[in-house]
Amino acid sequence: MKYSLAIFSIIFLSLKSLASEENRSFYEGRAEFIKKYIKDIKAQQKINKKYKGAVVESLSGSFFTSIGTSSQAELDSLALKKCKQKGEVECKVRFRSLKLNKDYNRYAVYDYKKKSLKVLNTYIKSNKVYTTKGVTILKNEANYLNEKNNFKCTKNKSDFRNILKILLKEIEIYPVSFIKMSGLKFVMICQTLEIENSNPLGLAPGHYDQSPGVFYINIDEINRSKDIKSKKEIIRHLFHHEFYHVIDTALSTVGIDDQWSKLNKQSYLENSSAEGPFINNSVEGFISSYARNNHAEDKAELFAFMITKHNEFKKILPKDEILFNKSKLMIKRLKSLSKNIDSSFWKKLN
Length: 350
Fold this sequence. Notes:
By secondary structure, the chain is α+β, with helices and mostly antiparallel strands. The chain is about 40% helix and about 20% strand.
């Protein structure tokens, strides 16, 4: 059975490695833009303490700024106006002076009138199936195609009650506070998923370094496994892997994570294949072959196995210092989202 997990980053899809030099340069450019904006405000505040600023980001990822001695509301409005005058859509205030706008997000929302999930300015016709701990499971009700990135999610036709049962059980593992801070909002069940002529088990969409809080599941690919036990393990691993792609945007910059990558002794290898929901520690520092793709997949794979195969995972740590350090960093980051991800949380997985 083909086993494939994926994250696609940026509204205009790119399956290039998140560790590629081109992608790194892009994210570094965004970071430098914000650094310059902050530097400019601080320089002006030395002259006049009344100086403030605003940064607005559009759906396309473009930044628009305004700096001056006007009120914060006026500066926000000016930056928003610049964004809209350029024909940009979904212009949102990301920075208010030197602070992140606490209300900024790109979360998907369910439109009850259209009976559709709005994700990054597109609508996927769907019905709510179940909601627990703030996470809503949706079933696709009409074939969806985004021609900008050749992404397909087809209408659900199969019975997915057993899959739903497993998903709900996995969600129950986490404290409500953690799920809320992670940003996970929706799981969309599609009959099939297709992206650039591939059919992954799951996809986690992203808007640059933000997550809409939704990922997609491919029923047909899951059902290729006829063994009930194997299917259950596939679904469990899939959920936690894709969930981490959502979590990752709340914890770090998805495009660049040098703190993580520097823990490795070996470089990442693009296009490393996925073998299934099985631990493979044949290469020092990596929990699976798929983890060798890039730091985003490395983290998602490690997290998934830390949850689903906790005891087996723990037995590896004394023999692999790199994995030990990675898990230590991950646990520290996870706890920063919720204090409930403490020792008792991990003990329950034993």
